[in-house]
Amino acid sequence: MAECASAGWWKAHVIGSAKPDGARGRIVLIDDDPLFRESLAANLEEADFRVTSFADGQTALAELTDTAAADLVLLDWRMPEMNGIEVLRRLRRQGVEIPVMFLTVLSDQLFEEAALLGGAVDFIEKSRSFTILLKRVSLILDGAKSRASDDGTSAASETIRRGRLTVNVKTKRAFWGDKPVDLTLAEFEVVRRLGERAGEDIGYRELYDQVHGEGFLAGEGDTGYRTNVRALIKRLRQKFRDVDPEFDQISNYPGFGYRWERGNADGE
């Protein structure tokens, strides 16, 4: 059953003719509502993104075979045959680490938390304005490009080592001992920040900004972003424990944030 947005921004904001040159990035849109899909694609193309649209998850999965296929996926939740969260899970099982943003009419926090725990980088309601959606898309893509341009400026900056943790900044890979830890891009950026400043308490807001860009708003109220950070840290801990059941390096400073604990093996 197709989702219907509760506001008409996606009709009203179709302006001019599409410009599919895609200078700002490549977006894959997966939504079974043809009117919404067509209107949003036109808006994004007018904003200078290249958009490829799919009406169902199965077809999209057949095309999204590697991370180079796109820069961002915009994903509906309620779709026939295969819902959005299952599409996300299958992408990750296939080793496809393209950032995924859910764009849905669902507003319950349980859905948002499930999306973030599943590896999505963001969750936004269809009722939000196109301006807000565009800002969030830009923050995700421009932030990733900025971090990529900062990487590898020197050989010394390409690898971070903290005890058993090794972070390769250039390849966006993290290892615990000699075992790779399967992280999304968002998870990697948080591990990178925690590892760079091991032994320091890092606030919820700073960790959230590391993923989404400074000033990005999410969740309910002024501190709603904390829920997203808690969900991400919970997922991170589990992924490291999948490699090492005794992993306990990430500590919580209640009311403030988290820290990566220094071990005796750090040599610092």
Q: How does this structure look, described?
A:
The structure is a single chain. With 268 residues, the protein is an alpha/beta fold. The chain folds into two domains: 9-147, Rossmann fold (3-Layer(aba) Sandwich); 153-266, Arc Repressor Mutant, subunit A, CATH 1.10.10. Helices cover 39% and strands 18% of the residues. It contains nine helices and twelve strands. The strands form three sheets. A five-stranded parallel sheet has the order 2-1-3-4-5, with helices on both faces. It has a four-stranded antiparallel sheet with strand order 6-7-8-9, covered by helices on one side. A three-stranded antiparallel sheet has the order 10-12-11. A hairpin with a 4-residue loop joins strand 7 and strand 8. Helix 5 (109-117) runs parallel beside helix 9, helix 7 crosses helix 8 and helix 8 crosses helix 9. The radius of gyration is 19 Å and the shape is globular. The protein starts with 8 loop residues before the first helix and ends in an 8-residue tail after the last strand. The relative contact order is 0.10.
Brief rundown of the structure:
The chain is of the alpha/beta class and 268 residues long. It contains nine helices and twelve strands.
Question: CATH superfamily of the largest domain, please?
Answer: Response regulator
Terminal Cα span: 57 Å
The CATH architecture designation of the largest domain is 3-Layer(aba) Sandwich
Query: Mean pLDDT across all residues, rounded?
Result: 79
Strand order of the largest sheet: 2-1-3-4-5
Count of discrete alpha- or pi-helical segments spanning 4 or more residues = 9
**Whole-number tally of structural domains:** 2
How many distinct beta strands? Answer: 12
Radius of gyration: 19 Å
CATH topology of the largest domain: Rossmann fold
Low confidence ranges: 14-18, 145-157, 213-222, 264-268
At the first level of CATH, the class of the largest domain is: Alpha Beta
Largest sheet: 5 strands, parallel
The run of helices and strands is HEHEHEHEHEHEEEEHEHHEE
Structural class: alpha/beta
| 3D shape | globular
